[in-house]
Amino acid sequence: MMGKSQQLEPKLFYHELSLERRIPQNHILRKVKQLIDFTFIRSRVEPLYGVNGHKSIDPAVILKLMFISFYYNVKSERALMEQLPLRLDWLWFCGYDLDDPTPDHSVPSKARRRWGQNSFSEFFALVLGRCMDAGLVDGKTVHVDSSMIDGNASKDSLKPQLRLIGQKLYQDLDDQIQLGQPVSEAEVSHDPDESVADASPEQDVLESRVSTTDPDARLGKKYGRSTLGYKDHRVVDDQCGIITATVTTPANVNDEHMLVKPLETHQDNTNTAVETVVADKGYGTMENYKYLKEHQAEACISHKHYSAGEGKFPPGKFIYDKQRDCFICPAGQKLTRFSRKEERACWIYRADRTVCEKCPLLDDCISSATQGRQVQRADDACYIEWADACTSVSRRKYLLGRRKYKAEGSFADAANNHGFKRARWRGLAGMTIQNLMIAAIQNLRKLMRFGNNRPVAMADNLSVFTNADSVFASKNAL
């Protein structure tokens, strides 16, 4: 038979009600609480608080609130505080009871600005250390990649940089006067035009405009899409996909300039020297190859190939003979050293015009009507040749295939589950904190997933290349 209508009759007292018993034993926050001791933050931020005044919320609770915000992808701190009283598991995790007052939404915001980036770097290092203790980090083979993040600002807020330079100058002078600091005559007579006097007439439009809403955000372009915001440069370990380093920059910083710093951060965090670096061709520059060779690291990084015009033989078809210091063209003729370009630090090698005119491949090779075919060789071209010979075809394909789901997959997971593609706050410091928290949470999820059942390391599978290398030995590694 049908039951009677359910009607809530609030009780004056609730007996034997315990949040501890309400939270299932297999709840994810129980596992987090077992693995991470959030109280470490108390000793770290204690010097940042005064002796007198109102007592703050427990810093460990604030860090837990920030953790919940990113783990469950809550869009803002205000929304977090609105949902907190409704979630028994969140209340239990933060140490609150049903009738305890919850903090105001401004508490995490103020704590974040007070603590600074270093406190969150230590949280990231703490989680990374747990992953290393569990054997999830090899540290020798790593993947480097970057991803764009939309800033918390509109492209309509972009203004010429010169106007912002003048505004900042007068704001700084006003701050000095209010603080009673002396102002020198040089500062007062400073001409904002001097700050951009050395700018090239061909300066990129992306560099010449700055957002008035978020001055740290910059316009960057990747895959044909322009973004006003930031970039997260990550180092992902090959073994289990653990993020070992994250460096945040404005969106206009090119990837080719962001290989060394993430690798050095990885080595500082793991105390392990990198042996193999895997990345896309955006990182394939002579400077990066030179750095890897000097540090005895193997480069699995393709480089850009330049064409010689539509339907013409590209420079890659010309083989350099080191002993004779010349290039050999597809027809077997020599290109000898002709002249030097100091601005590009390279030599030009040219074939004799009379020889080229007799060649049956003339139409497929030369577009000039007066001179023979020429190619350039940079002074540091030996590093490109070294990088091309670092790995065999089979191993290169294997590593680049792993990069797609280790590095790119790491960014996809962050975007789908933790709001990675949207900047919560403004400023480079806030974005650095956001990326550190998201990376730490992703590592923690890996730790809870694998635990003691870590996957087989890549080094254990190297036997697959033994037979494959002989098949591809005669082919170009690129």
Could you give the topology of this structure?
Blueprint: H1 19-22, H2 28-35, H3 40-45, H4 59-71, H5 77-83, H6 88-94, H7 106-115, H8 117-133, E1 141-150, E2 158-160, H9 161-178, H10 185-188, H11 205-208, E3 209-211, E4 218-222, E5 225-237, E6 243-250, H12 260-270, E7 276-279, H13 286-294, E8 298-301, E9 319-321, E10 326-328, E11 334-341, E12 346-350, H14 353-357, E13 374-378, H15 381-388, H16 393-418, H17 428-450, H18 464-472
Parallel strand pairs: 1-7, 7-8
Antiparallel strand pairs: 1-5, 2-3, 4-5, 5-6, 9-10, 10-11, 11-12, 12-13
Overall description:
The chain has 478 residues and is of the alpha+beta class. The chain folds into 4 domains: 19-115, no CATH class; 138-152 and 219-303 and 388-472, 2-Layer Sandwich (Nucleotidyltransferase, domain 5), CATH 3.30.420.10; 158-196 and 203-212, no CATH class; 315-372, no CATH class. The protein is 40% helix and 15% strand. It has 18 helices and 13 strands. The chain has helices spanning 19-22, 28-35, 40-45, 59-71, 77-83, 88-94, 106-115, 117-133, 161-178, 185-188, 205-208, 260-270, 286-294, 353-357, 381-388, 393-418, 428-450, 464-472; strands at 141-150, 158-160, 209-211, 218-222, 225-237, 243-250, 276-279, 298-301, 319-321, 326-328, 334-341, 346-350, 374-378. Strands 1, 4, 5, 6, 7 and 8 form a 6-stranded mixed beta sheet that branches. A 5-stranded antiparallel beta sheet has the order 9-10-11-12-13, with no helix packed on it. A hairpin with a 4-residue loop joins strand 9 and strand 10 (326-328). Helix 4 crosses helix 17 and helix 8 (117-133) packs parallel to helix 17 (428-450). The N and C termini lie far apart (75 Å). The model is unreliable at 185-206 and 462-478 (pLDDT under 50).
